[in-house]
Amino acid sequence: PPMDGFPHCKEKLKWLGEMWRTDLCYSNYGVNGSLCSILIYLSEIESWCPVLPGRVALLENSEAVSDHVVVRESLTGLYPSLEKRVQFRWIHQRIRSMEDIWVKAGRSLSAKYNLTERKAKQILVHPGVVTDESGVRIAEAAFSGGPLGELVQWSDLISTLHILGHHLHLTASIPDLKHFLGIKTGGCPTHKKVEANLIYTDIIGLRQIQAILQASWIKYRCRIRVLDTFGTEPDFNHVDWAKEHNLKSPFGSLNLIPMQFYTMFPHTPDNTFLGFVVQHQWSSEETEHLKSTRRQNQALVYGKRATFWEGKGAYMDVIHKYLEIHGTVDQSAGIPGYVKNHGIIKGTEVQALLRQSKVFVGLSFPYEGPAPLEALANGCAFLNPRLHPPQSSLNTEFFKGKPNIREVTSQHPYAEAIGEPYVWMVDMHNSTDVERALTAILNQTIEPYLPYEFSCEGMLQRVHILIEKQDFCNSTGSWPPLSALQVVKAEAKTSCKQACQKMGLICEPAFFPHLNSADNLAKYGVDCQTSELSDSHLVFPAYNSSSKHCVFQSDPLLFSCVRSDQSLIRICPCRDYIKDQIALCQACI
User: Fold this and answer.
1) What is the pLDDT of residues 566-579, one digit of tens each?
2) Which family does the similarity line name (predicted)?
């Protein structure tokens, strides 16, 4: 282009042509040594050169459309930023394999709801668990039988946000994160900083953000959403309470609003249920192949590590009397000789094995993974081992340090609630119990079953509503709508989670502030003769029925759905929910 008004452009072009490899930040901006890439950098990132005529319209256009959002018809726009980060290799693979299903689900949701009146959000996605700096090495282990639950959830969240039409910024390392946050790390200037409207991260990622931004992270606090598989309860989250009551946890004391923690399953009403997608739909080619797949008299065992099988020999022997047993185990040593072991195989091959098996066998560990729901979606019944006693951070090594004391009653509590004929509870050490379940399963045909909340469309619907309605920056925002509130009294020794459940409802912590005053309680038939404010317990608002004395919560971070008291009656905020979409009330959509 003509250089009028840009006297230093030529010398800068020459300098950067020779020096662009000296600092990684230049290639992060797309400089690859070609004259075009250097000119684009020197005109759009720095201001030494004129903008190329063909790029002017492009830049104006991108700014003009950036505030309007449309449901996208493909995931291809995501791939460049996934491909250039090795930490996203497994995530990238899963997203690609499901592109057709996501696009179809986006179309289907658009046909049912008006999704056009939305503003595009700038969203930062920073999974701390995949960064090399975290030392977790989850991204590498994914290909050799490592745990996949978190990576599945990150993959599905990224796909969802992209299909919904938002602007995504992915980071997978500390330099990446600093670059996005506009913190100078090399020779390049900080880029024209994008203000993130929302930040999805995990506990490791949040600690990284806090370390980089120091005290200034606070300005982002209300925009943060923390992916947290097992959940964080209010007393573990509250810095002072946790310290005073010795609730030590490497993952606790973050002092966020408990609903900013996003869980894998809807087990903790104090947190928000984000979920993931159960991959079970197939391309037309694979579907043809599957039609010829007949169900065999076989069982597939849920356990990729040989160590999970230890001490389960008698349990396997009982199952082997009825079914041929298959496994996908990292090594055959230590598993019974009659097991046909396929080794660690791709997800699609596991699906094919599920399609030809009748039973998916739980070994009591790993807890709460995606696989049992994949089994159900493929028409395979799940044997779900009971845990005696229920396991929690108080009695089980695996849960030690988790920021909750939630009791896990079986290998998969969500599946437990689905029940028969899909899910069969068994005592692994009681052969009669195991035989009873196997006989019942083999005497019927199990149809494929998948709750809507674990389908692509279900996840798109849920995340869309959460992005549009859930607001922690504005104290005036009332969501879910107050019309959904149903007040229930929980007898002494009963938590709000239990009291709401008994009524076929769910505890909704967003409504606690509304119930936290004598005037409002009077509308629901609670007569407070005397009252006080206190932060000495997590059960407030509550009252003593004999003295009619009410106690209100003075610290809003200590509202809790899951705690109970020996003598006080709790006033519980409950709401209805859409069947198979528990995160949303009926008036929420």
Assistant:
1) 999 999 999 999 99
2) Belongs to the glycosyltransferase 18 family.
